[in-house]
Amino acid sequence: MAIRQFQLNEAQIGELTRAYSESKDGVTRTRLQAVRLYGTGYSVKEVIEITGCSRTSLMEWCQKYRLLGVASLADHRQGGNHAKLKPAQIQDLKARLHQYTPAMLFGADAFTSGGQFWTVEDLDQAIQRWYGVTYQSRSSLARLFELCGFSYQRPARVFKSRKVADVMAFEERVEKNCWTRPRMHLIP
């Protein structure tokens, strides 16, 4: 059995304990506690059960602590694509999406054949053009559509090999049949 290389002395334990009690951030507290427990002799399995972290994360936190100290265990995540556009920009985007069609902005480069309806790809291209912002996630762009008052519509299947004259004749027959069908009158 290998001897554990990562062991904390009393000063380091005190430093981690103080940082833990002073921290208000839950993620940072979990990291501090996991490093302290592992450095005081708890097994990896016990630390994982207590803190809920993964083995990989635990080892990364211990290495960061060893190299850079307590400050390296703070949670520095920024959080979310939604913060890329300010609320005023989202309102401006909403107005522009209702004012323009993709065909008006991109012409033949629009992602739909007619360029009449907005797609996620068109929205991404428009945001890059208007605001210089790029989103990594399709779901974030779909959320922006929702914020702008758009709803998801499944496109209708259109067969490219169909003949326009045949379609018009069929629609005409359907419309005529609609009026020639006997109507049922309900008696109250």
**Binned strand content:** under 5%
Structural class determined from secondary elements: mainly alpha
Percent helix: 55-70%
**Radius of gyration in whole Å, from Cα?**
30 Å
Sequence stretches where pLDDT stays below 50 over 5 or more residues: none
What is the chains' assembly state?
single chain
In total, the number of strands is 0
What is the makeup of the main sheet? Answer: none
Cα end-to-end separation: 90 Å
Shape: elongated
- What do the pLDDT scores average to? 83
Tally the helices.
9
What is the N-to-C order of secondary-structure elements (H for helix, E for strand)? HHHHHHHHH
Kindly describe this structure.
The chain has 188 residues and is mainly α. 56% of the residues lie in helices and 0% in strands. Among the domains are: 10-73; 81-147, no CATH class. It has helices spanning 10-22, 26-39, 44-51, 55-68, 87-99, 102-106, 120-131, 138-147, 164-180. The termini are far apart.
Detail the topology: elements first, then pairings.
Blueprint: H1 10-22, H2 26-39, H3 44-51, H4 55-68, H5 87-99, H6 102-106, H7 120-131, H8 138-147, H9 164-180
Briefly characterize the structure.
With 188 residues, the protein is an all-alpha fold. It has helices spanning 10-22, 26-39, 44-51, 55-68, 87-99, 102-106, 120-131, 138-147, 164-180.
Task: Supply database-style keywords.
single chain; 188 residues
